[in-house]
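[SOLVED] Predicted holo structure with S-adenosylmethionine

Edit: marking solved, answer below. Original request kept for reference. I posted the sequence and ligand SMILES and asked for the 3D complex as structure tokens.
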Amino acid sequence: MVAVRPAGAALVGEGPRAIVVAQRCGLAQARDGENPMSLTPLRSRLSAMRQYLRVNFPRFGSLRRIYPVNPAFGLSDGTPIDRYYIECFLESRRGAIRGRVLEIGDRRYTERFGSDLTSSDVLHFVEGSPEATIIADISDCPQVPANSFDCIIITQTLHYIYDMERAISELHRILAPGGHVLCTVPGISQISRYDMDRWGDRWRLTSLSAAELLATAFEPAETSIVTYGNVFASICFLEGIVTERLRARELDHHDDDYQLIVAVDAVKAPV
Ligand SMILES: C[S@@+](CC[C@H](N)C(=O)[O-])C[C@H]1O[C@@H](n2cnc3c(N)ncnc32)[C@H](O)[C@@H]1O
């Protein structure tokens, strides 16, 4: 048995906890038959030690608190992380935002990403929005004629509606043949208190449930679904830590098991 403590100790420190960690990771002694001078097993044991430390001694730092850093998506501090992904998605679909465009709630994305517009409408659920040109429930809007729009932008809204399938059916009906519905929904998110207190915050979707929902009205072959997010971005988003505090690679790393935003581009079949 040959102690390799110097290398291990350099990483774990000197106290009794350091010795326990080094022993559990096999750093405190060479394994049977191992050349104590060889670096390869030492490296793999160091890597095991780092993993052990990550799992058993996570550094929570200032996040060790039961209240979020900012309870309202970080809106008062900068750009909420979900908006970064929503805007990445719409940027990638600029070409579809043209002609007669309908946006739910306001026209911020029509103005930012649209081109060659022939009309710009805003649908709001309740009276009182200065931008609204249509007051309607998107899951039941017979007053809106069929085939009216070349593009419908419905960001962060579908999950507020109990009967999402009916909303998809109405979106399909009022969309012109060849037109696009650009829709985003949260996969991982806190409750939106503002929306909960007005029309209700009901659902979170995954890429699978979004695909199944869209397939009730649109051809699956004409529907594309992308997801955005990763574990770190999700933790930061839940904490209300904003886009400006993260590095580009931390935002852009994609892990499909952490779907912070689910985004859909569905095209109505041309007649
Ligand atoms: C958080 S905003 C989302 C839209 C906004 N453009 C955005 O990207 O944040 C919530 C919107 O959901 C709309 N909404 C809620 N329930 C609705 C319904 N049943 N039909 C139509 N709009 C609805 C409200 O009018 C409101 O404008």
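OP edit: Residues 104-106, 123-125, 137-139, 155-157, 160-161, 195, 199 surround S-adenosylmethionine (CB under 6 Å). Thanks to everyone who chimed in.
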